[in-house]
Amino acid sequence: MRMLSLLWLAVATLPGAALAEPATQANTYINDAILPPLKPWSGASEALMRPADDSWATPFEQSGGIESPSYQQTFAWLDRLMTQSNKLNKVSLGKSPQGRDIWMIVASAEGAATPAQLRRNHKPNVLVQAGIHSGEIDGKDAGMMLLRDIIVGDKAELLEQVNLLFVPIFSVDAHERSSQSNRVNQRGPLNMGWRTTSQNINLNRDYAKADSIEMQHMLTAINDWQPQLYIDVHVTDGIDYQYDVTFGYNLSQGLSPAGYNWLQQEYRPAIEQALTQAGHIPGPLVFALDNTDLSKGMSLWNASARYSNGYGDARHLPTILIENHSLKPFRQRVLGTYVMLEQTLKTVGAKATKLRAAIEKDKYRYPRLVTLTWKSQKQPQGWDFKGIDYQLEQSSVSGKQVVRWTGEPKLYPNLPVIGNTEADIRVSRPAAYYIPPQWQEAIAKLSLHGIRMSRLEQPQTLKLQQYRLSEPQFAASDYEGRQRVSAKAKLEKVELTLPVGTVKISTEQPLGDLAMILLEPQSPDSLLQWGLFNTIFTRTEYIEDYAVEPLAQQMLANSKALQAEFDQALKDPAFAADAKARLRWFYERSPYYDKAYQAYPVYRAR
Fold first, then answer.
1. What does the angle CA 405 – CA 20 – CA 410 come to, to the nearest 5 degrees?
2. Best CATH choice for the domain 48-365 from the list 2.60.40.3390, 3.40.50.300, 3.60.40.10, 3.40.630.10
3. In the chain, which stretches have pLDDT less than 50?
4. Quick check: is 342 catalytic?
5. Identified catalytic residue from 323, 342, 480, 520
6. Which of 218, 511, 526, 568 is least enclosed, having the fewest CB within 10 Å?
């Protein structure tokens, strides 16, 4: 009660805050005075919480549902829980940049401690990670409660048909950069971690490029432990609405249509029923087209491979993105997450055969054409959106209209839904890719993802395809520590001798689609667009004008076809008036020109 009083005092001293008794749960956090109004919530899931004085109450429960423990407190509590059973093992995925272990709790009926031991029980593995954005930590506290109820409560049967791999804190360094002021739009916990890592990398933009140490550890864990379902727990930003637990996954148009069907037909109905019965309001992921005008509709998101759910789609690992509503209180969000995780274990255990079959079908589908980019289109089905009413007011601060949410529920019937679901750039599936050995960083990234490859043990002369790039567009500023680039790409036939050590990557493998997403230059999450091949856009050899002039005269005298081509080029007034462009035209057609300039050093075998 003293904690609540102190928090109320902090709120009351904010500019413009009215001095009133903290009569509702809206007066729980320091930022409540500046957030939209909130109606009290009560649901059946509240029965999941143990009293604060219970010997096995989690730190979250001990605080009455408003706090989340520190890194040290979290693992001290989990270490104590592990002493009660051999069903739990704690495994370090590796160290963070600041030297903290990224711990994963392995929960199985048999007490497996290694991937090999876990495989021997022939059960599906569910990997749940919390705190990829460490301020959005609901999954940690929900998972601690669920593990407690499995080990010292009455839910041991949850491990009879499934194994749980639980990462309580993924971004561990950011978790310890904790403050009451880190996420102004989120109702708790009292202290929240930071969004990006200690190296300022957003982990949920890092799946494809895998620059961070944390992500490298996670991808290694996925390859080693081979989960059949991957859950990434977040908290939203954005608008106000009635849903408290929203979740989604990639679409039927993606690279894992069988996995999508399982999630849509088997998983979602079971989860939504469980959440509804527990007093929550589940929904799909919510992204408004215009936060100030809901009548414009909602966006349906087809995520790319830089995000967890887009990456799962590319590697045929069914992946669920949970986005709890930031304006709902921490207590409510944690309890909703608990319900979702518990039902996930039940559903995966009961539907494991269908889940495995869907994954295998996607892994060995090998589509002839792969879509790299998508265009937006209106979806055939609208959305009866459970929103919150709002008004637009003229702001004296910004000078423009701002949204004022009223807190009153409002149904917005049949809102239009716009999604990036129309195929745009599509490419044919090569039999294999070849990468010369000097491109070590790109080869290392592909290996990190678990993509199978072999190396040439002797030189080979092959007829292949190579992209010739043009009109490169470099980003004006860096993004996630990289200078991104895009370019036009045209396939050309080449015959060349590849050196010893060249890597060959067949696309007929379980991660063949992921290899295409990472290696096709027009893919938004290709290693090229992430800047791993930027040096090919640097011109390093030149020819002086005094040398080009006589060379051009000689070339024209020796080739009537070249003379005709030059005459045609001169019909362009801009080209004809540009002396340097004319000289460059001849240099590019001469034997002195750098043939590797803007030639993508990844070759395709048809």
1. 20
2. 3.40.630.10
3. 1-27
4. no
5. 323
6. 568
